[in-house]
Amino acid sequence: METTGIVGREPAERIRDTLARLATERDVWVSTAHPVHGPHQVPLWFLWDGQAVWMCTGATSVTVRNVREEPRVRLSLPDTFDVVLLQGEARCFPDQEVPAEAADAFAGKFGWDPRVEEGSFVYVRVVPRTVRAWRGEPELRGRVVMRDGVWLR
């Protein structure tokens, strides 16, 4: 594999870059699985609140159905060179039960407030337990930057 001059970042820099991307990116790929129906992957808008990822989707979506059966999920930012993968457990909040601070921040970021829509929506919160981040082959070693919910400095 050609590295094209990539120089590996120190752990603190990887964490800083990862947190910056979580704060500014718009989309995340959400991977869920159902014990009978199998895997499902979908892109959703997301908000990072400093501790967790918040997403919102229709109350009857496959994502919500899967999370209710199997809360373990994987999330990935949509860049195959500057990879950020998160793994954790999801928790569902019906749109009328979501903490106001999270819903207000979500609405502020996207200009869309599911709480005032006609249909039913569910906010999905994922607190990461593991985060992996790397840019190219030189950063494969040391790609785990969070383990058991603790950032590795």
How would you explain this protein's 3D organization?
This protein has a single domain, classed as Pnp Oxidase, Chain A, CATH 2.30.110.10. The two termini are 28 Å apart. Helices cover 22% and strands 42% of the residues. The model has no long low-confidence stretch (mean pLDDT 95). The chain is an alpha+beta fold. It is globular and about 50 Å long. Keywords: Oxidoreductase.
Short note summarizing the structure:
The protein is 22% helix and 42% strand.
Number of domains: 1
CATH class: Mainly Beta
Low-confidence stretches: none
Q: If classified by CATH, what would the architecture be?
A: Roll
Task: Please report the total strand number as a whole number.
Answer: 8
Class by SSE composition: alpha+beta
- Percent strand equals 35-45%
Shape: globular
Topology-level CATH name: Pnp Oxidase, Chain A
Distance from N terminus to C terminus (CA atoms, Å) equals 28 Å
Order of helices and strands: HEEEHEEHEEE
Global Rg: 16 Å
Instruction: Sketch the major β-sheet.
Output: 6 strands, antiparallel, barrel
- How many helices? The count is 3
Spatial arrangement of strands, main beta sheet: 1-2-3-6-5-4
Name of the CATH superfamily: Electron Transport, Fmn-binding Protein, Chain A
Helix content: 10-25%
Keywords: Oxidoreductase
InterPro entries: F420H2_bilvrd_red/Heme_oxyg, Pyridox_Oxase_N, Split_barrel_FMN-bd
Protein name: Pyridoxamine 5'-phosphate oxidase family protein
Organism: Streptomyces niveus (Streptomyces spheroides)
Summarize the topology:
Blueprint: H1 11-24, E1 27-34, E2 38-48, E3 53-58, H2 62-69, E4 72-76, E5 82-94, H3 100-110, E6 121-135, E7 144-147, E8 150-151
Antiparallel strand pairs: 1-2, 1-4, 2-3, 3-6, 4-5, 5-6, 6-7, 7-8
Domain Pyridoxamine 5'-phosphate oxidase N-terminal: 22-134
Keywords: Oxidoreductase
Protein name: Pyridoxamine 5'-phosphate oxidase family protein
